[in-house]
Amino acid sequence: MSSYPVVTICGPRQSGKTTLARHLYPEYDYVSLENHNERKRFYDDPIGFLELHAAPCIFDEVQNTPELPSYLQGIIDEHDTPGMYILTGSLQMELQQVVTQSLAGRTGMVDLMPLSLHELQRAGIILSRDEYLLRGGLPRVYVQDIDPVNAYSDYFRSYVERDIRQLVNVRHKTEFELFVKLLAARVGQVVNLSSMAGEVGISSTTLREWLSLLEASYIVFTLYPYYQNYGKRLTKSPKIYFTEPGLVASLLGIETPAQVGRDPLIGNMFENLVVLEALKSRFNAGRRSNLYFFRDVRGYEVDLILDEQRQPRPIEIKATHTYDSNLSRNVRQFGSIVKDALDPHLIYAGASMGVSQGVSIDSYLDIYHVMNG
Questions:
Q1: 191-199: long-range contacts at Cβ-Cβ below 8 A with a sequence spacing of 24 or more?
Q2: pLDDT block averages, 10 residues each, the chain of length 373
Q3: What is the 3-state secondary structure (H, E, C) of 204-262?
Q4: Burial call 275-292: b when 16+ CB within 10 Å, e when fewer
Q5: Largest CA distance in the chain
Q6: N or C: which end of the chain has fewer CB within 10 A?
């Protein structure tokens, strides 16, 4: 806010973008562009609308009025004062395209994900591994103390009815919902869309479009494989993760923490949680993701790679509460395969133990410090 005339906050619906902006800047005018009447006022008289809502102002869900940033550009260029406007939005690609075209060089872009374990701990909320996986990070689950099973079911239903129909006319609603549930069952895996096409009854081309929509609206995110040749990284198949662990549990039909612990996908769900927390930790510290996974032609794999200044840090993820030296075998080998590797970590569901056999043994509750320490 001290450097740019505009700050754009991107993130999933209900992650707290509006609450954060209005809490930090209560003196700013506020306009919700999800409100039909506000959108109509803008389109009827854009200049008069912006005179009525002069800076400083928060424009919420700005992707609903994609022409707005171009009108703001003229005002910003005339005054060029830091902190004039805050924009928020929930549709990643559309928002970034609209904003960067009109406000390139004039806006700072930040990503606000749902509550992290680090934030929950600071608020005095300490849960078990399985409770975290069931409750996820949706703020209203904690603020309103509502049943996460109902919360995530409603969250997904409203997402399908709202964002998906706004982005594209999904004629095959039943098939789309089946596709998302199948993705949840493959969380943390490289997804084969050709194989899934047969299960869903929809072409792989359409599934690829649907996957892009899920990414655009922050339902899922992708983790690409690590290669020292940077050009190869974005051309290979990524793994798919969900931005809400609670949504994964909901889509899998899990309703209690006890069910979480017994589920055959507990390892995948825990990996999703840890990778997501690593991503949140990077974003919340104002850093780029720089996260990848590693797999070679022999099938040797490391769950997570943090690549900083071309020095990869390998991280193995295990859902167990009990430490065993065999758990860190893959990250110990990584240094012999990839040059410049350093600082290997094992993140598991037990307590942090310091360094053992050259590997830092860390609790998943300490991910923020692992990523930014």
A1: 191/237, 191/239, 191/240
A2: 94 92 97 95 96 97 90 92 93 68 86 94 95 95 91 86 64 86 95 92 92 89 82 70 96 96 97 97 89 87 90 95 94 86 94 95 94 81
A3: HHHHHHHHHHHHHCCCEEEECECCCCHHHHCCCCCEEEECCHHHHHHHCCCCCHHHHHH
A4: bbbbbbbbbbeeeeebbb
A5: 68
A6: C
